[in-house]
Amino acid sequence: MFANNVGGLDKILRIVIGALLIVGALMGYGWWMWIGVVPLVTGLLGTCPLYSILGVNTCPMKK
């Protein structure tokens, strides 16, 4: 499928922001906060389809 292209800090930020948005949605701050599923899933999987399309990679270089 997709190669890993989401590195350390990027992955952590995606998971934290995604989780916070989902918690906000569960607390009733707005249905739009369910968008947090996207960064959460991409952070957990370590791959971002948009990064693949744009040619971005935040993973450290493999030797």
What helical percentage do the residues reach?
40-55%
Count of distinct strands: 0
Q: What is the H-and-E element order?
A: HHH
Shape: elongated
Strand fraction:
under 5%
- SS class: mainly alpha
What would you report as the Rg, rounded to the nearest angstrom? 13 Å
Q: Counting H and I runs of at least 4 residues, what is the number of helices?
A: 3
Biggest pleated-sheet summary? none
Domain Inner membrane protein YgaP-like transmembrane: 4-62
Protein name: DUF2892 domain-containing protein
InterPro entries: YgaP-like_TM
Transmembrane segments: 12-32, 38-59
Description:
With 63 residues, the chain is mainly α. It has a domain at 8-47. The chain is 54% helix and 0% strand. The chain contains 3 helices and no strands. It has helices at 8-26, 37-45, 49-54. Helix 1 runs antiparallel to helix 2. The radius of gyration is 13 Å and the shape is elongated. It starts with 7 loop residues before the first helix and ends in a 9-residue tail after the last helix. The mean pLDDT is 93. The chain crosses the membrane at residues 12-32, 38-59. This is DUF2892 domain-containing protein.
Please write out the topology.
Elements (H helix, E strand, L loop, with lengths): L7 H19 L10 H9 L3 H6 L9
Helix pairs in contact: 1-2
Précis, in short:
With about 60 residues, the protein is mostly helical. The chain has a domain at about 10-45.
Note the main attributes of this structure.
single chain; 63 residues; mainly alpha; 0% strand
